[in-house]
Amino acid sequence: xxxxxxxxxxxxxxxxxxxxxxxxxxxxxxxxxxxxxxxxxxxxxxxxxxxxxxxxxxxxxxxxxxxxxxxxxxxxxxxxxxxxxxxxxxxxxxxxxxxxxxxxxxxxxxxxxxxx
Amino acid sequence: xxxxxxxxxxxxxxxxxxxxxxxxxxxxxxxxxxxxxxxxxxxxxxxxxxxxxxxxxxxxxxxxxxxxxxxxxxxxxxxxxxxxxxxxxxxxxxxxxxxxxxxxxxxxxxxxxx
Lengths: 116, 114
Prior knowledge:
The structure holds two protein chains of two kinds. Chain A is an all-beta fold. In chain A, 0% of the residues lie in helices and 52% in strands. Chain B is built from no helices and eleven strands.
């Protein structure tokens, strides 16, 4: 079975500093997609970043970047210059290639608090 | 934001009563999904639809049914609600007509079964 593990239930970081959230996954697929979603207190789920497994280059979106290690099945999210608005739950998710990207398998989430 | 509206936003119901949650989209996207979110479990897929009248089960489909009679509407029904179905329910759509496009979520429905 495909699984996603986020080993850090909660983390905190000082404003303007850098923080890394961990995610590991288990799959026998060779091609797949990985995602990070953000859920602020408003409850809305917001796509932060997406990585396609066949692409070696790590995805970046402004202050957000990933460290994708395919062999290790690791997909960590780095947030640079943390801002108060980054306070949220962060979910790592996996989708097998070829299936609709909506059939996502989510980790249990990491609660990130950015402190002033 | 993608045009996704979930209704109701909140609902309290009693055990054994039927409940229907509605998801409405204005994006004309083919794929629609229902997830539930529970503490300690992240989000889990209940059912999804890949077109009008085309639906399939997800990871936690027991006790739920869905219908999609129009592209824009995807209904989730709890035939006889139980306390274990107390949860936050999210509808999502794929961000385009292709299969491999990212998900966009609605704002969720908080359902409490007493």
